[in-house]
Design brief:
Blueprint lengths: L1 H20 L4 H15 L4 H31 L11 H5 L3 H30 L4 H26 L14
Length: about 170
């Protein structure tokens, strides 16, 4: 049980990071995750029959939770970028805004964890424990890969500086 909670916390933290790093529409992000899971997740016939509808529900609920978080921040005049890019924005915020943002982040994490616990119970009704663990591992792997791709895309192209001319 302890390992399950640790896994859920890691997935929650990863979800927060990855979902803010996205620039696609929510439907496109959901479809990307579904395609990834279809490619990598091995399910039995009975599991497969039930899984995809419930998984899509879960992803939609997760997106809605993230959207609510963003809207709550925006109502207070707080518009954040991708994780790791907000230091200067946060330094310019008032103490009241920073406190509100922190409170909302804790609320978001609580809501995501509650959502995961709810859907964990649903998945348990038709998935084996090993397949459920495989789902959590794949979801975490997907988010790590997506974050790595995002970081790679932000890197400057490798090549000569100043058109290959040396600085004097």
């Amino acid at each position: 049980m302890k390992k399950l909670w640790i896994t859920l916390i890691i997935v929650t933290a990863s979800a927060t990071t990855v979902l803010f790093a996205q620039e696609k529409s929510p439907k496109a992000m959901i479809q990307d995750r579904i395609e990834y899971m279809k490619k990598h997740l091995v399910l039995t016939g009975a599991e497969n029959q039930n899984f995809w509808k419930v998984y899509e529900e879960y992803l939609a609920a997760e997106m809605k939770t993230m959207d609510t978080y963003r809207k709550n921040l925006e109502r207070q005049g707080i518009k954040l970028g991708s994780p790791g890019t907000n230091k200067e924005l946060i330094e310019k915020m008032s103490d009241k805004q920073v406190t509100y943002m922190q409170d909302q982040k804790f609320e978001l994490r609580k809501n995501l964890l509650n959502l995961e616990a709810t859907y964990h119970k649903k998945f348990k009704t038709f998935m084996t424990p090993h397949h459920l663990q495989e789902l959590y591992n794949l979801d975490h792997k997907y988010k790590r890969e997506l974050t790595a791709k995002k970081k790679e895309a932000k890197k400057e192209p490798i090549g000569p500086v100043n058109g290959g001319k040396k600085k004097r």
